[in-house]
Amino acid sequence: MLDGPRSGLALLAPAMLRLAGLAVFATIVGIAFGMQAGLWTAVIGLAALLLIHLRYAALLAAWLEQPRLEDVPDGWGIWTDVFARLYRTRRSTEQNEHRLLENEERFRRTISALPEGIVLIDATLQIDWCNPVAEQHLGISLRADQGLRVTNLVRDPEFVGYMTSARFDQALIFQPMSRPGLALEVRVIEFEVARLILITRDITQRERVDAVRRDFIANVSHELRTPLTVVNGFLETLIDAQQENGGTRQHHLHLMHEQAQRMHRLVEDLLTLSRLESRETPVSDEVVDIQQLIREVADEARALSLGRHQIHVDLTPAFVRGSREELRSAFGNIVSNAVRYTPEGGSISLAWREDATGGRFEVTDTGLGVAPDHIPRLTERFYRVDKSRSRETGGTGLGLAIVKHVLLRHGGHLDVRSEVGRGSTFSAVLPTERVVTHSDEITAAA
Ligand code: ADP
User: Fold this and answer.
1) CA–CA–CA angle 280, 284, 287 (5° rounding)
2) How many whole angstroms from 414 Cα to the centroid of ligand 1?
3) Which residues lie across from 320 on neighbouring strands?
4) Nearest CA among 327, 330, 328 for reference residue 401
5) Which residues lie closer than 8 Å to 161 by C-beta, 6 or more apart?
């Protein structure tokens, strides 16, 4: 549209030529028609030039009011160059503005996509900007709260104390009153002069895992402390052996043996659980003979019961795919619980059932039963309804946690139906994919 820029004399040359042309023309008119006519010609010519320049100056002033690239006027003479320069300057300004806006937008999008909350604040703790995650974490709103002090919006004393202390070398962990159940880690980074970035991270899950680990360690320590105290106490007595007759010593040794066995069982169960949890490989696919497995756990149950219960076994040939070792441990735990929580004279039945939804190992007892509110928690580690009965009968509090893990690894689950004082049915349920049907066997044999 417009010519390229020219500079110095080159820019002024056409204007000078135009003036020189006017002077020559006025002189010729003066010579031809007299002095006065020549002067009038010069004056009119100069006035015409002035008017043209004034018009372009007015156009320039109007454009400067609203300097839009598409509205840059076309020029004449020296104005062509002036407007060409304006056009180029305006175009590069607009390009820079556009690039800046784009960068800012990209920066905001990036920060908004972070899993952390980000709040930009100034030295007086006023909010400049924040991303949606920070809005969620702190219960603030960029639109409504921009320019307000963050400590007036998040009023938790530990947060206010942390922000006003201006000592940000350590992170703050707190639970905002506005978001019950949420645990937040807050960090503040100082940048530029008196500008702060506040970063919030949701650590609810981490805190929960830490709490479970702390509870777990406390429980294990507690479980081991009692038998160790007993063993230690008797050992101290035995050191002073003269004071004991043979019978008492025998009794003490027997008690120590019992406690040592209890610790042994506990450590074994802990190891089984940790092995189950740390196994990343899928459960093995060996074909397990269920009939034989049930026969073995029934024998164990008889040995544990010592004839105090009637034990019925309903055996039908059945096979499942899975880990024999893990299933044996799960079935064994369910059966030993039935013996331990069924008073003398009660009966216990073991059966394998199959239907369209899969297969289930059902153990029904006429024992103590479990109240409904305890049932959902039975598979938690160390959860016991009746602590003393569990300990007296040698329970570690980990049996059903092991059962749950084994069944989960096999795609199944534990089903508990129970009535206090009447008895319970604990079923290890396995999905159809695990059950080997007759046609599977034929295929396998082929
Ligand atoms: P424990 O070693 O204490 O038996 P478990 O994890 O095997 O640990 O079982 C957890 C709790 O579930 C037991 O303490 C007991 O209160 C309850 N429980 C398990 N099986 C039965 C059952 N057949 N009858 C009644 N209560 C049971």
Assistant:
1) 165
2) 13
3) 288, 435
4) 330
5) none
Between CA 438 and CA 65 the distance in angstroms is 90
* Pocket-forming residues, ligand 1, beta carbon under 6 Å: 333, 337-338, 341, 365, 367-370, 378, 383-386, 390, 395-401, 424, 426
> How many Å apart are CA 160 and CA 428, to the nearest integer?
53
Atom of ligand 1 nearest to the CA of 398: 6
Backbone angles phi, psi at 131, to 5 degrees: -95, 170
Tokens of 203: 């650590």
Q: Would you state the pLDDT for residue 243? A: 62
CA of 318 from ligand 1 middle (Å) equals 27
Structure tokens of 346? 């009660």
Q: Look at 263 and 344; give whichever has higher pLDDT.
A: 344
User: At 128, which helix (H) or strand (E)?
Assistant: strand 127-130
Contact status, residue 173 vs residue 188, Cβ threshold 8 Å: no
Cα–Cα distance for residue pair 144/14, rounded to 1 Å? 60
Q: What is the pLDDT of residue 276?
A: 84
User: How many residues comprise the chain?
Assistant: 446
- Measured CA to CA, the distance from residue 366 to residue 229 in angstroms comes to 36
- Report CA-CA distances (Å) from 67 to 59, 63, 72, 95, 317: 11, 5, 8, 14, 91
Q: pLDDT tens digits for 347-404? A: 999 999 999 999 999 999 999 999 999 999 999 999 999 888 888 888 899 999 999 9
- 148 with 129: CB under 8 angstroms? no
Residue (of 208, 179, 202) closest to 114 by Cα position: 202
- What letter would DSSP give residue 359? E
Amino acid at 346: G
- Separation of CA 430 and ligand 1 centre (Å): 21
Beta strands in 303-438 (DSSP E): 310-314, 319-322, 347-355, 358-365, 413-419, 423-431, 435-436
pLDDT tops 80 at residue 244 = no
And the tokens for 442? 């034929």
Map residue 187 onto helix, strand or coil. strand
CA 378 to chain centroid: 27
Confidence of residue 108 (pLDDT cuts 50, 70, 90): confident
